[in-house]
Amino acid sequence: xxxxxDRMQSLAAQITAANIAYHQNDAPDVTDAxxxxxxxxxxxxxxxxxxxxIPDSPTGQVGAPVAEGFGKVRHRVPMLSLGNAFETEDxxxxxxxxxxxxxxxxxxxxxxxxxxSLAIRYEQGQLVxxxxxxxxxxxxxxxxxxxxxxxxxxxxxxxxxxxxxRGEVYMSHADFAALNASQAxxxxxxxxxxxxAAAGSLRQLNAKITAERKLSFFAYAWGxxxxxxxxxxxxxxxxxxxxxxxxxxxxxxxxxxxxxxATQLIEYHKDMDxxxxxLGYDIDGIVYKVDDIAQQIAMGFRSTTPRWAVAHKFxxxxxxxxxxxxxxxxxxxxxxxxxxxxRPVNVGGVMVSNATLHNQxxxxxxxxxxxxxRGGHDLRLGDFVEIYRAGDVxxxxxxxxxxxxxASAAPYEFPAxxxxxxxxxxxxxxxxxxxxxxxCAAQGRExxxxxxxxxxxxxxxFGDTLVDFFWDHPDLEIRxxxxxxxxxxxxxxxxxxxxxxxxxxxxxLEGWGASSAAKLFKGIADARRTELSRVIYGIGIRHIGExxxxxxxxxxxxxxSFHNAAVAVAEGDPEARDTxxxxxxxxxxxxxxxxxxxxxxxEREIIEDLVxxxxxxxxxxxxxSGSPVAGLTVVFTGTLIKMTRSEAKKxxxxxxxxxxxxxxxxxxxxxxxxGAGSKxxxxxxLGIKVIDEDAWIAMTS
Length: 701
Fold this sequence. Notes:
By secondary structure, the protein is of the alpha+beta class. The chain is 37% helix and 20% strand. Helix 17 (532-538) packs across helix 18 (546-556). The protein starts with a helix and ends with a helix.
């Protein structure tokens, strides 16, 4: 396993554990900055190395599932999290995104309270229920506990018929100190910080305990609401204040004047950072939101975060050390990833010895857009460099102290040949890639891990650890995919030669037994019969992810048909190339990858050897007969409530529809869920039919 992939899996495990500790157990074992940093680092690594992305990554999740003991409440409008900004450029990028939609809209800024998110639903002015964020779609029913909080009104006057108030439950510093003093006097466990105390108090199964603890509540937004009597964020917050909710007095809105919007926001951030100690409650950053509600709708949402809001976190820590070396690591697709080897240094309580260097341009002092970074200074061995942890975790190289650069330091030369297999290295965009393919040991090992993974062949009991085990084993060596499926035969021959009891050599090795060996062999045997889409995805062709593999499978239906077309592409057949290019999302990059994989040579031999051991299940042709959406192009946007986006897409494709990710004049239907933004507006402008999820279900049932 490469250091990068190992880091990604480690981060995913840590984030998942932190989500449970934070959202379910109210006992986080990492700081908020550490958590934000881990999530940001994992997102960055997934963007840089999509072939290593982990299925069900926590970067695509919000919060954590509801803990046992609580009733469940499904949010009518999902409670999404916020994207994070850490640097000035992040804020400027947010402002540019806002200005791209409208040059005149203002932005609000308010302290980000470090507490527990809560949604309180009122109907006809009466408090109906209160729920935590949970996983964003389903929260915990804490209604009786919320009724004990003095800042939360039991009934409202002159409120919309339906109003879901959203805000943050927190505990002031004074109330936290008093609670801990009381806990200590009674010999009970004290709390680590006000956030833990607030969350633990609100999420008590016994509301009497919650009532004994002083909790506070700031209202800052709304969810489900009928006939909103406001058109701006500031207007909505003002309405909440009129209804009796406490709102943050430090909320401001950008103003016209000598400073541009980004500068105003950054200056406000700096000012609030200086005030933090005197607020009397914890904040961990500043939240910026587009003020105009119509523009919020136009900007829309990502999968888990709104585009019209961002949380600007407080600063990361930095330290200086020596760049001792630059190591090159290879992933499954052969991309060469440079990593800085550093003299270990303590950065914010963590010893850092490595930092990502992204690519050759980054080493040479250029950003992804060609602009200068680090003042245009390149990185050379022996340089004294600044290391910072973005979000307090991600090790990054900052400035270079040019006054300490030795005269003999030479510019770093990126390898022209693969450091593992010596195959030529080619440049594609900003990345360098080894052309060795499966013949390269580094790529071969990582592609085996990809092949056995859950979304590929999903071989039960065969994970990354076993790939490493067999890759290096002197007797049961596995270096190609086909050797996975000949393992039991090889094991049997070894057992006969060594006269192993039970007929399995593997079963005699340390850490193994007859049961575990038999289970592995069964998992391999079961995986021989595999769906076509899994095979196409599993062989690890560059630029062919799960969705593209599924699309190709639905087009060619059988392995033989796909294989013949891919070989024809490699031979330069224009008709075969046109067949692939006609598929949505398939372009020159995929054609180039197919040509590499299916040209005569070792790569193609390895693939064909694997397939000779498989029973590949043909793909079913789309059931378009009688389908009301056959041949139509549909787009899903917003949040779907009754099915996942993936489920909806598969359903549409099985019915013969084409699913697109963007709205155009070729779009026939837009299915819009809550939070639909610019796509819904564009569809309306183009006169495209727009329906909700219920209408889609009725149409396709």
